[in-house]
Amino acid sequence: MLKPAPWLLILADQALPLVARVPFVVQRLSLQHGLNRWLAEPLAAGEFELLRGRWLCLQVRDLGLVWYLGLGPRGLCIARSAPAQVTIRGNWREFLLLASRQEDPDTLFFRRRLVIEGDTELGLGIKNLLDSLDPELLPPWLWRNLERAGKGVAAAGG
Predict the structure, then answer these.
(1) How far apart (Å, rounded) are the C-alpha atoms in residues 137 and 40?
(2) In principle, which of 51, 61, 144, 152 could form an S-S bond with 4, CB 3.0–4.6 Å?
(3) What is the mean pLDDT of the chain?
(4) Is residue 19 a part of any domain in this protein?
């Protein structure tokens, strides 16, 4: 496999902050639709019940993005603000390393590259749930590109 060019990471560092300019309603609808579609099996199996009646705040610091994730009657829902019980924050590269499984989640949290604040029991439950999800739940094209991008970030040193 070809090593990603370093300029791609520089371009991503410059382009990704533009996502924060996308209207929240578009962010919400696309995230909710994608998450509920791709996570339909674990949702149906009740694996996300730990979020029922609770909110997780995800903060991607360097992109200026904040989403609140909860479980409603029709699946996962995204809100602009909510009374979060737990917050997970980090930069986009750390979230990519986590999502692409290029770095162990415990290492990211232990080294404080990702931070859990609030109800740490809930945060650890969510971390363990996400870590247990099968990447094959994602469409092959998405997983392949996520993995490729994660390898590029890992090769660049995170």
Answers:
(1) 9
(2) 152
(3) 90
(4) no
In a domain, 4, yes or no: no
Domain with 72 in it: what CATH number? 3.30.1050.10
Examine the pLDDT at 6 and tell me if it is beyond 80: no
Could you tell me the residue range of the domain that residue 123 belongs to?
Answer: 48-155
What's the number of domains the chain is made of? 1
Q: What pLDDT shows up at residue 3?
A: 53
